[in-house]
């Protein structure tokens, strides 16, 4: 197997940190054992945790005002794969890539697959793009895609999605994620019901082309680029569409796609209950769809979401196997650093949620003891599980301190030389 960073750079760093880590791990292990928690069992859970990286997240993002690219950014999907290999090598918990088409289209998919295989990476959900026009396209998506009033535009958007499935098959993916920007910017511009009817017809046509062992995930988003109404604007429209479309059609929750203060953990619970939770796009937000780094603004909310997920895992809820993915835009940080940090922050929420004493919590819920129920959750959230996460990485030959190891490796400096700016289009959301 190939490594993006020389393994001896990682082991040299780990050698310096291992004895401190062992001590911290022992102290935490002792504290947890007093509560009847086995730290090694938790560490195994951390080792098994994995979250997919969005190919487009490896480039610097921006706003609609400007983009300030960094040096050595990936110029194509092959270079994005190399950056994803760094993220996984150091974090030990990000072994899959989620590509976006046509941004990541290549002539030879077997060459791309061989490239990702050589780094031990796989491909998760494939994403279609009918929110932009492509140069060689017959019809425009200016007024929508899957919901457009014109049948020719809808057919083109459906055909693109079925093409994305074909590309995904070549990479070994098993999920199609569909997000459309369709909606309206003015009251009266669009007939709500007719637009939704057209969406359902289009979604069913795509679903008909889905291989039997694939899932189709629909992503809702409250606004942007449509600023008055969006066709799949919230989880209500999303679950209705998923239910209408078919059993293997499920809802995907992008955390930033909700109004501020919406109770996302409760939405997650509802989707689990009706076997419609497809997966997540993790990120964080302060005001809107900010695409900030996961856990950087509302770590408690992220923990409460994982509390629902662990609860479903604990109850062996039928049909429960959500896909985890990051979906962030890195405007001022090195994307590799943000993605490593974010993958670990999501993993952190998972491990903390595993610390919740579910029997005790259920007792407090039964007795209507609101304060102690809340304290049970807070107690788990307040535990610093960093030694568990670091030990999980160490045991997988990843980095005890991923960011320090990354900086010491000079990967970005080397990429700056190897990837001179060609002035062409690059990854990252603008
Ligand atoms: C839309 O804002 C979104 O969250 C969807 O997942 C897109 O595929 C992605 O961002 C990239 O633009
Ligand atoms: Mn998303």
TrEMBL record:
Molecular function in Gene Ontology: isomerase activity; metal ion binding
Transmembrane regions listed in the UniProt entry: none
Superkingdom of the source species: Bacteria
Keywords: Isomerase, Manganese, Metal-binding
Keyword Manganese tagged: yes
Presence of the UniProt keyword DNA damage in the record: no
InterPro entries: L-rhamnose_isomerase, L_rhamnose_iso, Xyl_isomerase-like_sf
Name assigned to this protein: L-rhamnose isomerase/sugar isomerase
Organism, scientific name: Marinimicrobium koreense
């Amino acid at each position: 197997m190939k490594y993006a960073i020389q393994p001896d750079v990682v082991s040299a760093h780990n050698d310096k940190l291992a004895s401190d880590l062992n001590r911290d791990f022992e102290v935490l292990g002792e504290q947890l054992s007093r509560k009847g928690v086995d730290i090694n069992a938790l560490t195994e859970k951390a080792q098994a945790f994995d979250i997919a990286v969005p190919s487009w997240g490896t480039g610097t993002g921006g706003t609609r005002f400007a983009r300030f690219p960094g040096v050595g950014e990936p110029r194509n999907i092959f270079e994005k794969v190399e950056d994803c290999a760094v993220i996984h090598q150091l974090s030990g918990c990000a072994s899959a890539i989620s590509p976006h088409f046509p941004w990541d289209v290549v002539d030879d998919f077997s060459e791309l697959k061989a490239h990702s295989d050589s780094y031990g990476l796989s491909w998760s959900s494939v994403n279609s793009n009918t929110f932009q026009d492509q140069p060689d396209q017959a019809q425009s998506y200016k007024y929508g895609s899957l919901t457009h009033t014109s049948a020719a535009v809808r057919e083109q958007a459906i055909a693109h999605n079925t093409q994305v499935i074909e590309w995904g098959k070549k990479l070994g993916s098993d999920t199609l994620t569909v997000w459309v920007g369709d909606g309206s910017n003015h009251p009266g511009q669009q007939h709500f019901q007719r637009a939704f009817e057209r969406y359902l017809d289009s979604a069913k046509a795509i679903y008909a082309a889905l291989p039997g062992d694939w899932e189709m995930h629909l992503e809702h988003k409250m606004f942007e680029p449509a600023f008055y109404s969006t066709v799949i604007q919230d989880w209500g429209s999303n679950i209705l569409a998923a239910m209408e479309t078919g059993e293997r059609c499920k809802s995907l929750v992008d955390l930033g796609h909700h109004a501020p203060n919406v109770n996302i953990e409760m939405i997650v619970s509802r989707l689990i209950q009706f076997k419609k939770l497809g997966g997540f796009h993790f990120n964080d937000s302060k005001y809107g769809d900010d695409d900030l780094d996961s856990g950087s603004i509302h770590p408690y909310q992220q923990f409460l979401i994982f509390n629902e997920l662990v609860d479903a895992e604990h109850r062996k809820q039928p049909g429960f196997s959500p896909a985890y993915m990051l979906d962030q835009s890195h405007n001022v940080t090195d994307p590799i650093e943000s993605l490593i940090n974010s993958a670990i922050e999501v993993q952190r929420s998972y491990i903390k949620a595993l610390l919740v004493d579910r029997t005790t919590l259920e007792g407090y819920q039964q007795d209507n003891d609101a304060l102690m129920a809340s304290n049970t959750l807070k107690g788990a959230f307040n535990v610093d599980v960093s030694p568990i996460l670091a030990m999980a990485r160490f045991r997988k030959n990843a980095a005890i301190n991923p960011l320090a190891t990354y900086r010491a490796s000079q990967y970005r400096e080397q990429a700056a030389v190897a990837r001179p700016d060609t002035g062409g289009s690059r990854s990252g959301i603008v």
